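Lecture notes, unit on protein representations.

Consider one protein chain, 133 amino acids long.
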Amino acid sequence: MKNEKVLELLKDGPMTSAEISEALGICAHHASSMMLGLIKENRKRPQLVHIKTWVTDHKNQRRYPRALYELGAGPNARKPKPDPNARKREYEARKKSILKTSSVFNLAVPLKCLRSRSTPGTKIANSASNAST
């Protein structure tokens, strides 16, 4: 019964198991196990679904590869190899862009202002110009 609903959903286009679980109102683990059953070919029926590609999902500040399922038989896309240094590279790039100082005077600027890419002086100047108009 649920398999027919999944096949109906996939007629609209490729979906991840998380999107399928949301549409059907079931837990993600149950949707994943259903998709595994539809991917496998057995004696009673042919392969109904295949993995088109893998997409990256950001959940709880971590990156996870998720399968994008497509209706129809075909070869499954290979899962991408994990990149253990990807998180470290992203962190270092963010840190470098946030904490760049072009002047000694930026050392006195609070980190909060550096992150928002503005300085306290510009906020005061803007509020002073608004008060004069």
